């Protein structure tokens, strides 16, 4: 017997929503890492230069701000 058969429908729905949110955040982290690394580290070496670290920090901050704006707009549109 698996866990889903012992859950109430509400518990199951919550578990599904939590799993979907986790996958979304994992995808967000992977995308952020890839895009910012490509934009900020033109020639990978054995360590990051100070300018690359600064670029990565700013890139990640900007990316997360945009994601928040899009999320808020999506939630406000009642979709």
Layout of helices and strands:
Elements: H1 9-40, H2 50-76
Helix pairs in contact: 1-2
Question: Explain this structure to me?
Answer:
With 79 residues, this protein is an all-alpha fold. Helix content is 75%, strand content 0%. The chain is built from two helices and no strands. α1 (9-40) runs antiparallel to α2. The radius of gyration is 19 Å and the shape is elongated. The chain starts with 8 loop residues before the first helix and ends with a helix. The model has no long low-confidence stretch (mean pLDDT 88).
Report a brief summary of the structure:
This protein is mainly alpha-helical and 79 residues long.
The tally of strands reads: 0
Query: Average pLDDT across residues?
Result: 88
Q: Sketch the topology as an H/E string, one letter per element.
A: HH
Q: What sort of overall outline do the alpha carbons produce when their principal axes are compared?
A: elongated
Low-confidence stretches: none
Proportion in helices: over 70%
